[in-house]
Amino acid sequence: MTTAAPGPAALEHVRTTIVPELLAAFPGVAEELPTPFEIPQVRVSPEAIRGVAEWLKARGFNMLLDLGGVDYHPHRQGEDRFEVVYHFFALPQLWKLRVRVPVGGQKPEVPSLSDLWPNANPAEREVWDQFGIRFRGHPNLTRILNPDDWEGHPLRKDYPLRGPRAMGPYLPADLNRFHPFKDEPPDEG
Amino acid sequence: MRGDELAMSTLDREDVEVLDEKQDRMTISVGPHHPSTHGVLRLVLELEGETIVKAQPEHGFLHTGIEKSAENLTWTQAITVLDRMDYLSPLSNNLGYVLAVEKLLGVEVPPKAVWARVLLTELQRIASHLVFLGTGGLDVGAQSPYFYAFDMREGILDIFEETTGARMNPSYFRVGGLAKDLPEHFDRIVRDYLKKFPGRLQELKDLLEENPIFLDRTKGIGVLTAEQAIALGLTGPNLRASGVAYDVRKAFPYCGYENFQFDVPVGKNGDAYDRFVLRIREIEESYKIVQQALDGMPEGPHMTSNRKVALPPKEEVRHSMEALIHHFKLVSEGFKVPAGEVYQAIESPRGEFAVYVVSDGGNKPWRVRVRPPSFYAVHALPTMLQGAMLADMVMIIAAADPVFGEVDR
């Protein structure tokens, strides 16, 4: 009853054909990573990602499936502290390719892809909001999930889980703090 | 003079932008608390007469830092927070995450758990689509389908309650299997529900599909071509309504979906009506899958026997020292997952829901990146709304079916 699914064969094609072509087209800036789970992956330097993205789009990758950030601090510090992870997808060929771009330094920055795939626009805003990675050439790089006046970038590993804005412990004095009519604190004991 | 100063000082930067640039255009802000936005979405619309020239979505009102919370919980505990993203389909969230962790661990899942997962997520898809049909109908004034749909959904939630103990956020799937075994009368309660299902679905279809008012309000509205839908990163029913037959269950089967016979319905016009009808068809297909899963439900354990990830049975803990140690270790610090990263995509009711999990070898996920299909659907709204009438906005948002728990996470 089982029918062969087209996906795994398409991924095999990406691994055996498209990745070698990509590496040949971008010598020195792109390197292949091992494929532990299905989707082939490539590491590309931040300067080259724009060229690689254009190349992939011309090659048939018409969907930017996902764009997200990862913070490896304190495992990695310096120039490769963060990683911007792109998942490119081609329909109807079902090709999937993961491109990982290491970035770091005081002002991490990668070029924006929002003119190539429109959905990169909100996804890049989210990465900026959560990780503080800038996207050069982005039309409106503003916060998207956190309020505009938020300080810091919450998904960074050095951002505390409970910061100064976190709610403190609930004390007896807090019992009627927001009650519209009762303004005296409750009797102790 | 004094009045001007006061007016300027109370306007913040955002409101100044909202002031009309052109005399014949009007900018209005819809939401975030508006019943038609199905959650908390704010849309800044620029109108020319009644036509929408430009729309800008704004969200984040439901942002609760789920990804950050997950990084600070053990692998098993993280299931409970990830549960709360897509609150209309929590079992899909469970499934995507659990499958990703299982891949990293290389754990074998017993067949009964695999089939139960398929069965329950398909029931969940039906429940989620029923909410979509009910509330979507309500948006154009169809009051009765709402009650029909929610009554049908109620039956599914009753099954969940009986099986998992919770109606809305079951957190039922665990790494390696299920949290507990299916109840003894599971087969009977699901069959009882399924027996009445086709007739009741037909009633719902009769109320919506051929209703002339409904047709008028949905046909030719919010049209997206296949190219546009692909470029905007849409997946799931929103993409298939535009004629692209991409379904993760068929293309990249997970969790044993290759063993089930079902079709992938595809739309033609890519308008709101197609998105509606397509979801009705999907309910029918899910119904088929549920029946197959029920007929073929294997016997056996519901959890892997690998003691490194699964809690030992309570009876064993009382007698065996080793089981007690495993129990203690799993409860106090959880299990460690080998370093690596995995992208696991599943077909949630809203599209390709994927988790990109990174592990550094510790007992907590290093990073759980969720690809929320609704997030991209919300940002496709400007394209769908451009040139639409203001009155159709409600229908276009409803047809995109965003869930803001998932958009904002």
Description:
Chain B: Keywords: Cell membrane, Membrane, NAD, Quinone, Translocase, Transport. Chain B: One of its GO terms (cellular component) is plasma membrane. Chain B: Its EC number is 7.1.1.-. The complex is a heterodimer of chains A (189) and B (409). With 189 residues, chain A is of the alpha/beta class. Chain A is built from 3 helices and 7 strands. In chain B, the strands form 3 sheets. Chain B has a 3-stranded antiparallel β-sheet. A 3-stranded antiparallel β-sheet of chain B has the order 6-7-8. In chain B, helix 7 (143-164) packs antiparallel against helix 8. Classes of the chains: A alpha/beta (189), B mainly alpha (409). At the A-B interface, helix 1, strand 3 and helix 3 of A face helix 3, helix 10, strand 6, strand 7 and strand 8 of B.
Layout of helices and strands:
The complex is a heterodimer of chains A (189) and B (409).
Chain A: H1 6-25, E1 30-33, E2 41-44, H2 49-59, E3 63-71, E4 82-90, E5 95-103, E6 109-111, H3 120-131, E7 134-136
Parallel strand pairs in A: 2-5, 6-7
Antiparallel strand pairs in A: 1-2, 3-4, 4-5
Chain B: H1 2-10, H2 13-18, E1 26-30, E2 42-48, E3 51-58, H3 66-71, H4 78-82, H5 90-105, H6 111-139, H7 143-164, E4 173-174, E5 177-178, H8 186-208, H9 212-218, H10 226-231, H11 237-240, H12 248-251, H13 272-295, H14 314-319, H15 321-332, E6 340-348, E7 351-359, E8 367-371, H16 373-378, H17 381-385, H18 390-400, H19 404-408
Helix pairs in contact in B: 5-6, 6-7, 6-13, 6-18, 7-8, 8-13, 13-18
